[in-house]
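A quick aside before the break. I want you to see a complete sequence-to-structure record at least once, exactly as it would be stored in a machine-readable document. Don't worry about memorizing anything.
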Amino acid sequence: MNFLIIINPNSGKRKSVSVYKNILKPSLELNSINYKTKTTTYSGHAEQIIESIDLLNFDAILVLGGDGTMHEVINGLLKREDGINPPIGNIPTGSGNSLLFDLGKFDIKDTINIILKNKIRKIDILELSTFNKKIYSMNLIGWGMGNDIGLRAEKMRWLGPMRYNVASLIEILKYKGRQATIKIDGIKYDDSYALITICNTIHVGKGMKMAPNASLNDKKMDIIMIKDNFSKFELLKLFPQLFSGNHIKNKKVTYVQAETFSLKTLKNDILNIDGEVKGETPINIKVIPECIKLLN
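That is the input. The structure line, written in tokens, reads:
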């Protein structure tokens, strides 16, 4: 076995390098596994590395980082011209790690031991098209208040995982609805919305069950919509229910599953994609079934 290891030293609480040196490296050497490391130094670096590096001699990619680093690695793989697509093992050193929440993997040593068993699980990915550009999402695409939360959380990284919760509470108190035209599997709707989140995973942020019925390989995206018919007090009451998934029982929350989705807004709004602030409306989204392999 020969692994390519992507280390994001700035992910989460900045423990990736320590985990590599003290836990991962000894495990690999104990199992006589060859490896090469690449350390990221700026945003987007992991995507550039994976898109351009010669992967022919690597059996898998290990990622020390969170959802943002995984997002970059997956985008790098799916944008490769040669189509080489080795399996990925994600070791949880990030602040979010929503994908691993879906897989029930929280402990670093346990996750490494599972990865080394070399069992593969295929997952769906969302392909987003915007202005002749394609972006791939493994976790979520957020617009409206959901994106505002992502923008604020990005400025509050010093809070660690709690930044998602704090940012959510602040933006709920500030929110204003926005007009949008959407299509769900070709059916058109025009309305004012507070939030639209398109999920591939159950979890977003730090353990929030935004899409409790989601599956990583059901060939569908889960769409959560809140129209501009909530008071701020109602939204504050709804927020704690995100951790249990009970928010979808509220009659004012629309939850649907679909194969395609499009969003057009009055202006070109920035999006939250897998916790990263990138892309902008208008967008078209479709599911690419089982196109990424995870070591799980």
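Two observations worth writing down. Residues 110 and 160 are 23 Å apart (CA to CA). The chain has two domains: 2-118, 133-289. We'll return to this after the break.
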